[in-house]
Amino acid sequence: MQPEQRIEELRALIAQANEDYYTNDAPTIPDADYDALVRELSDLEDEHPDLVTEDSPTQQVGGPISILFAPVKHSVPMMSLDNAFSGDDLTAWSDRVSRGLDLPPDAPPLEYVVELKIDGVACSLRYENGELVQAATRGNGKVGEDITANVKGIDVIPHTLGKSAPAVIEVRGEVYLPVSVFDALNEQMEAEGKARYVNPRNTAAGSLRQKDAAITAARGLAFWAYQLGQVDGGPQLSSHSGALDWMDELGFPVNPERRVVEGIDQVSALADEWLERRHDLDYDIDGAVVKVNSLARQRSLGSTSKAPRWAIAVKFPPEERTTKLLDIQVSIGRTGKATPFAVLEPVFVGGSTVQLATLHNDDQVRLKDVRPGDTVTVRKAGDVIPEVLGPVLADRHPDSKPWIFPSHCPTCSEPLVRPEGEAHTFCQNPRCPAQRQARIEYFASRGAMDIDGFGYKLVARFIEEGLINDIGDIYFIDWDRVLQMDRIGETTVANLQASIEATKTRPLASLLVGLGVRHLGPSAAEALAKNFGHLDRIVEATPEEMAAIDGVGPKIAEVVAEYFRSDVAKALNDKFRAAGLNLEGPAVVDTPQTLEGKAVVVTGGLEGFSRTGAADAIKARGGKSPGSVSKKTLAVVVGNEPGASKISKAEELGIPMIDERAFVALLETGELPT
Q: Which H/E stretch holds residue 269?
C-alpha cells in the first residue's frame, strides 16, 4: 500500500474512533490500539511531511463536539499532552526541554512535578467572584460542551470559593468514577440482569454527559484538579507546584500523590514506582504526567499546535487490548457453578499474556453478545481475573451466530440447572469430577487450609491415581505410592507432608471456609466458630440459631445447616476427627468491649502485632477492621511502609492517624490520645 493510501486509511480509522469515544461515549477500540494508530500515522507524516494536512488527527486536540450540549469557547485552550511510551521517549523529551531552554550541559537538574494521569474525562470549571458559573468538556481544545448542570451534582466540586477567590479563575481537572463505586454499580447491573459497564472511564463519560442532571448526581462521580486556565487576580505564582497548593487552599480536590523531583532520573524512578502501585488506588490511572515546575520556564518553552512542550504523559502498559475469541467454554466450580469463559488468541495485556478470560454467566454472554470468531476487547487490571468486555462489531463475520449456553455439564454430562431467581447455572451432581477437583483445590488454597504446593496439576494427578476422592482423603494419602510416581521426588513429598500436617492446628474458621459451602465466607465462618466453639455444636445447630449470630443471617444459615445434614458432610467430619484436625473454636475471653461499633483501619507493619493479629485485637473488643478508610473510620493505625492510598484518604477526610503505642492505648481505653 502506498504511503498516501495508508495515511488516508489511518485518518479515517482515527476519525471514527474519535467519534465513538468523544461523541458517542462508546469507544470501539482500546486506548492502546488507538495510540498505535496515531503513532503509525505520526511516523508516516514525519517521513512524508508534504502529506501533512491541518485537519489530520495528529494536528488536532480531542474530538468532535456533541450537538446535545451548548458549545463553550475556552478562554485558554485545553490542550492535550504528548506521550512517552518508553524510557527513551522520556529522555528524548527531557533533552528537547533542555535545548528549548538553552541549558548548558553542566546546568543543575531541572525541577519537575510528577502527577498521576487519571483515567477520566477532562473538564474545565470557571468561577467568577467565587461562584461556579460554567463547566465544560475539553471538546476539540478550543470549544467544549456546556455540562454545568451535571457538574454541580458532583459532591466534591465546590459551588463557591469564599472571599479569597479571585475575580475569575478557571480550574482544569479530571472527572472520574472511583473503582469501588464502579464495582458496586456493576454488581447492581448484574443483579438486575443488565449488561455490566465496561470500565470506570467510559462509565464516567456517559454519566457526565447525561441530559438529566439527576442521573449524573446519582452516579458518585469525583474530580481531581490539576491545572489553572484563565486567572484574573489572585497571588503571583512562580511554580506549578505552588499553583496546585493554591487550588488546594481554595477548596478544590487536588490529588495528594504529587511530588516535586529533580532531574529526569527521579522522574523515571517515580513513574516506575507508580506502575507497580497503580492498583493501590481507588481510581484508575494510565500513566504519570510530568511538568516543568517553573512557570517562567513553561512560558519560555511554549506549545505546539496541540500540546505544551513543557509537559508529557508517561503512558503505562495497556490494560485493555483486542484479540480473537477462539471459543467459549464452560468451567464447573466447587459448588457446581457453571461459568462461561473465553478461549482467546494469546494477547499481552496488563503485564502478562492472556489466553483465558471470564464471561461471568449466561446473561452477560447474551447481553454482551460475544461470539466465537469475534474480535473482542479484553481487560486485565493487576491481579484481577481477565475479562472480555465486548465485541468489535465492525469486524464480525456476517455468518456469525449467537453462542448458546450448554444444557448439560461438560464434565459429567448431567443436566445444568438455573434456579429460579438466580443469575448462575449449576451442575447439581455432587459426584461431578470437575466439582471434586475444584473442592480439593479450594480446600488447599491460601484462603482456606493453605497447603503449600498442592495446586491444580498435583491434585489432578492424585485424583487420577486414586489417591484422593474428597478433601478428607488428603489426610490419608498413601505416601509410598506417591514416591513411586514419575516426577515426584522425596523433597516434594516431604514438603507436602509437612504442609498437610500443619493444617491440623489451623483455626476452626479455616476448616469451615475450606469446606467450600456456598455463601460461607471467612467472616461468617469466624462468627460461627467463635459463637459455637466446636464443629459438633455447629453441626447440631438449627438454622434459626445460626441466623441469630451477627454476620451470618438466614440465607447463609439455611445453606450451612443443609450442608451439615448431608451424608457427605457426616463422612468428612468423621475423617477430620480421625485425622486429628482442630475442631474447636477460639476460646471465649471476657474482653472489655472498648471499641464496640467503632472502625479502626491498620496500614503497614506493626512491631507487636501481625496483620491478622491487629485485626483480631480490634474485633475482640467489639470493633471493626475494614480494609479501607471512610468517614466512619475512628482512626488509622500507621505502621512501617503504610499504604499511600489509605494515608491520603485519611488526610482527605481528616481521620486521626496514630502510631502503635497509641493503638495499644486505644485497645485498652477506647479513647484516642488528646
A: helix 263-277
